[in-house]
Design goal:
- With 115 residues, this protein is of the alpha+beta class.
- It is 26% helix and 21% strand.
- It has three helices and five strands.
- The protein has a five-stranded antiparallel sheet with strand order 1-2-3-5-4, with helices on one face.
- A hairpin with a 3-residue loop joins strand 1 and strand 2.
- The longest helix has 17 residues.
- The chain is globular, with a radius of gyration of 14 Å.
- The structure holds 2'-deoxyguanosine-5'-monophosphate.
- The site of 2'-deoxyguanosine-5'-monophosphate has 13 residues, from strand 2.
- 2'-deoxyguanosine-5'-monophosphate binds next to strand 2.
């Protein structure tokens, strides 16, 4: 309840929000790693991809997945292409314990995994 993204959802912290619907919120990452770096989060309090995929309802899962696709489409990233990333747990280097999908775009990306 007290993590940064939960607080952004409650509008206790500011964010550059680009999209919101019943199931999801999308906003700019505070420390962008690409020309466009957005985060898409579900509105429900799910700590990770694992938690979300195990506990969320069909409607929440469908709504969230559709929101990620919608945000990328609206950002004009379909034709050039983009990258999605969901860091999960310790080895995944997840820092904020509210599920978030990183959406990267705006340049050619290279090899998948960089330390
Ligand atoms: P991860 O390592 O996958 O948990 O990524 C967390 C991301 O969250 C990281 O790219 C930076 C971003 N971030 C951290 N604090 C804030 C914040 O207060 N606002 C926004 N917009 N992004 C944040």
């Amino acid at each position: 309840d007290t993590n940064i993204f939960a607080r952004i959802l409650r509008r206790e912290l500011p964010a550059r929000i680009v999209y919101e619907d019943e199931h999801a919120l999308a906003f700019h990452d505070i420390n962008p790693q690409a020309p466009l770096h957005l985060l898409v989060i579900p509105k429900g309090a799910y700590v990770s991809w694992d938690d979300f995929s195990a506990r969320a309802s069909e409607a929440e899962i469908a709504g969230f997945v559709r929101a990620v696709g919608h945000v990328a489409r609206e950002a004009g990233l379909v034709a050039p292409g983009y990258r999605l990333l969901a860091n999960t747990g310790g080895h995944g280097h997840q820092e904020v314990p509210h599920l978030h999908v990183h959406l990267f775009g705006g340049r050619q990306f290279g090899a998948m995994l960089v330390d």
